Amino acid sequence: MSLNKSLVTNLISISFILLGYIFQNQYSNIFYSIGFFALSGSVTNWLAVQMLFEKVPFLYGSGVILDRFLDIKEGIKNLVLEELFSDDKINEFFENKQIDTEKIYEKIDFNRVFEGLLEAIETSKLGSMLSIIGGREALMPIKDPVINKLKEIIKDKLDGTFNNDDNSIAKDVKIGIEKALNSKLDELDPQGIKIIIENMIRKHLGWLIVWGGVFGGLFGLLFSIIQNVI
Q1: The pLDDT of residue 145
Q2: What is the pTM of this model?
């Protein structure tokens, strides 16, 4: 898309130059000025766009995205962490999404948990000892105390994990995000960074070339008017 904009702008600029050359009259200088100024503006801006993404021989400072890709990677990471996943934003999210531990308790089948505990004991080395004292029926009197203790332990664990105020969740989430970002960004080389940025903005930078030609042409018209007046 940017190539088409550049091509059309340059062709229009060259057309004004040709019109000034073909029609030799009092307006020739105006056409010349508009064409040359517009062409210089569009070509200059096209070169500026190229210098962002590519190394241009003999032009110091070109290929800035390739040269500064480490800073760009760090900037991307900081943008995500500080703007999107700051401690305040993560804490605010969890404050608005408080976990109802009672609903979790309701979904836990503690009877099934106790049954699983009994099955584990029966299949372990303690199974023979259990059969001596009457099998699983001998452990049924401790069912309620065990279930109550399990509920107490799970409640304390959930409350301590989801409803605390020590920012530990925010820190854990941020550390996880930072690790994921670092892992992904480490896979990117200078060419990869260039492709990402180029895909995002290069088509829009085509308008830079167009407006360079437009303003160049306007300056050319102004230059021609002043020249004629003087």
Answers
A1: 79
A2: 0.50
Q: Is residue 14 domain-shared with residue 59, that is, in the same domain?
A: yes
At 97, the amino acid letter reads K
**178 within some domain:** no
Predicted confidence at residue 94, as pLDDT, reads 60
Query: Domain tally for the chain?
Result: 2
CA pair distance 209, 205, nearest whole angstrom? 7
Q: Is the pLDDT of residue 179 over 70?
A: yes
- DSSP three-state, residue 108: coil
- Amino acid (one-letter) located at 15: S
Is the distance from CB of 190 to CB of 115 less than 8 angstroms? no
Distance of CA 187 to the CA centre of its chain: 15
Domain residues for the domain of 133 are 103-162
Q: Nearest Cα to 135, choosing from 149, 147, 119, 148? A: 119
Q: Under a CB-based contact definition with an 8 Å cutoff, are residues 223 and 37 in contact?
A: yes
Tell me if 195 is assigned to some domain. Answer: no
Query: Closest Cα to residue 65, out of 203, 194, 201?
Result: 194
Place of tokens 């004292």: 133
Measure the CA–CA gap between 105 and 28, rounded to whole angstroms: 88
Radius of gyration from C-alpha coordinates of the chain: 36
pLDDT at 206 over 80: no
Residue 133, helix vs strand vs coil: coil
Query: What's the CA gap between 145 and 15, in Å, rounded?
Result: 93
